Amino acid sequence: MSNAPARRTIWSGFPELIDWIELGLPVGTDAHGMRIEESMGDGKYTVRAEIPGIDPDKDLELTVAGDMLTMHAVRQSQSTGKHRSEFRYGAFTRSVRLPQGAHGDKATADYKGGVLTITVPFDERKRDAKAIKVRKAE
C-alpha cells in the first residue's frame, strides 16, 4: 500500500463546468454544445455529432458560411407530471472550421440512431504543406 495521499481532482464537483470548457462555449449562453467526432480521409471530411431525441426535418438546421459549418438543433422537453431528468433540452449549437479545399456546397448529411453524420468533400491537392527551412541565428 502506498503512503502517498489520495489525489482528488478539483473538477470532480463541477461536471457542467467541464462540459462548457470542453465544448468551448461561454458560460451563461442559452445554447448547449454538442459532442462531435471529426475525421479526414479519401478526399472527404466527416463530422459526427451526438444529437439524440430530435426530428431532423423539424429540429435541425445545418449551414455553411465560408469555411465554417454550423449545426443547430433544438430538443423539446416532453414531460408530463413531476419527474426527474438529467437530459438537456433546448438549443444545441456547434460550429467547426472546414479544412482547406473543402467544398461546403457539396456537403451531405444523414441522421441515424441519434447521430448526425455530415460529409464534406475536399480537394486534397490544396492541402499540400510546404516545409520551411529554419536558419540558425548567430
From TrEMBL:
InterPro entries: A-crystallin/Hsp20_dom, HSP20-like_chaperone, Small_HSP. Belongs to the small heat shock protein (HSP20) family. Pfam families: HSP20. This is Hsp20/alpha crystallin family protein. Residues 27-137 form the SHSP domain.
